[in-house]
Amino acid sequence: MKPRRNRYNTKRKLVSAQEKDRSLASRISYGGNPEHKRNPGDFGLTPPAAHRRADKSLCDDTGVLTRAAALNLLRAGILRRGLISEQRRNGWPQNIWAVTDAGEPLEAMLENPEQGAYHGYPMPANDPFRTEILKRWQQRP
Prior knowledge:
Blueprint lengths: L21 H6 L1 E2 L36 H13 L8 E2 L2 E2 L1 E5 L5 E8 L4 E6 L6 H10 L3
Parallel strand pairs: 1-6
Antiparallel strand pairs: 2-3, 4-5, 5-6
């Protein structure tokens, strides 16, 4: 069996650090993905029918255990640091990034471009973009 290659989107780019869109932050929602949750109950998600893939990272491991916490992190990524992608779909950023209080960088991906709903997951340690997210998060607002 061939080992799985870790590929990351090398086209991800952040907007200027000064872009902090209050309107966007008030309109986004968090949908979630049960494959990134050990206990998806508070998110209103049904566990996947098949067993979760072993390579899926779990939000539970970062302390993001509620929908409210996930939504607060999305909004913090927008308002505190402007951690949104240049790439847009239907007016929504393709990605939003944030960092937990414990210093764990997270990436959220647009899952519903009509409603502005995202699902998020911890960034793998070997993702080179992780360093950029941590650097921007640590800059003074």
